[in-house]
Every structure is written in structure tokens, then in C-alpha cells.
Specification:
This protein is mostly beta strands. It is globular. It is built from no helices and 15 strands.
């Protein structure tokens, strides 16, 4: 909570060379509208409940940590750069304005998009990875998910309650599909499981 609840804070300039932004470092900085994260950052968290945050430029590598941007209601777009390896629990949870996510090939651990009510499209390009439990749970508008060959596991509750999901292609590299992975996907009409 280093700068948490600083309601007057509107701008932050992070220096190149910064390596870590800890969880909740800038929690509830409600007037923060835009941030740019330098490429030197290898662990990023800290912006939960920044409800007016609209623009985030990520250049970092490594991990996007627990609740990094959860409840950032005005965040409409996020570009996750190549070099990010992990998207942690609830990293983007309840970011209701997010509509599209593309996950790069370097990400090996995916979770953190729970209850993103406006999310409609997800492209997962991971060359070798896991979609962990609760990853997209409750994303009721999610209609299209593209999963690349290389994902080995779809965890428990991963897409639970994604009522808008119409079809999904599961690559042959997937060896494990967890309990309730697609539970309550009421609109799901087509599932294709490739040989593998």
C-alpha cells in the first residue's frame, strides 16, 4: 500500500531500471488515468481498484501478478507484450470494459480474467502453457476463444459461466481438462477436440 488511496494522484513516471511493482502499491488511486511500465520490470502488480485507469502501456517481461489491474473498470484494452511469462490470479478480474485479449507465445501460465463482463474474444498463442483454474470464469459475453497448439491443460472452472461461448477448439496438446472447465456454458454448441 505504498501509495494506496492517494486520490489526488493523476500521473506516475516509472524509471527504466525499476524491477518490481508490488501488490497493492497504488491500490485505489482513483484519479490515475494512464501508466507506462518500463521494460526493466519483471514483476508487476499494484493497480487494483484504479477505477479510472484507461490506458496501460506494458513493456515489461516476467510476471503480471496477483490483482495487478483488478477492478479497473475503465480499462478497455491491454496489449500483453512478448516476454511476459505468467498472468497471475485475478490480474485483470472485473475489468468490465476489456473486450479483447491476445496472450503472447511466451506466457506459460494463464489465469486472472475472472468476471470480465465485456470480454468477447480471447486469442491464446502460448507455445507451451496452462490455462489455470478460474482463468475466464464468469466472462458472460465471451463468444470466441482461440487456443493454440501447445496448451497442455485447461484447469477447473476455467471457462465456467461463459454463457456467450458458442464454440471452442481444443488443441491436441491438451492432456487435462479440469472439473467444471466449461460448466454453465449455456450457449456452447460446438466443441472440437483435435487429436494429440
Amino acid at each position: 500500500y505504498a501509495f494506496g488511496l492517494w486520490t489526488a494522484l493523476e500521473e506516475i513516471v516509472f524509471p527504466q531500471g525499476l524491477e518490481t511493482i508490488q501488490a497493492f502499491a497504488f491500490v485505489d488511486c482513483i484519479n490515475l488515468k494512464e501508466i507506462e511500465i518500463p521494460g526493466s520490470v519483471t514483476y508487476l502488480s499494484g493497480f487494483a481498484d484504479c477505477i479510472n485507469l484507461e490506458k496501460v502501456q506494458l513493456h515489461n517481461t516476467g510476471e503480471i501478478g496477483i490483482e495487478a489491474f483488478s477492478n479497473c473498470d475503465r480499462l478497455e484494452e491491454i496489449v500483453i507484450p512478448e516476454g511476459v511469462t505468467k498472468i497471475g490470479h485475478r490480474a485483470f478480474a472485473d475489468c468490465n470494459m476489456l473486450s479483447k485479449i491476445t496472450i503472447p507465445s511466451t506466457v506459460t501460465y494463464i489465469t486472472g480474467f475472472e468476471n470480465c463482463l465485456g470480454l468477447t474474444t480471447v486469442q491464446i498463442n502460448s507455445a507451451d502453457g496452462v490455462i489455470d483454474e478460474d482463468a475466464f470464469m464468469g466472462c458472460i459475453s465471451l463468444a470466441e476463444v482461440m487456443i493454440s497448439e501447445g496448451i497442455t491443460q485447461i484447469g477447473e472452472n476455467a471457462f465456467m459461466g461463459c454463457h456467450g461461448l458458442r464454440r471452442i477448439n481444443i488443441p491436441g496438446s491438451v492432456a487435462v481438462i479440469g472439473d467444471r472447465a466449461f460448466y454453465e456454458c449455456l450457449g456452447l454448441k460446438e466443441v472440437t477436440i483435435s487429436e494429440g
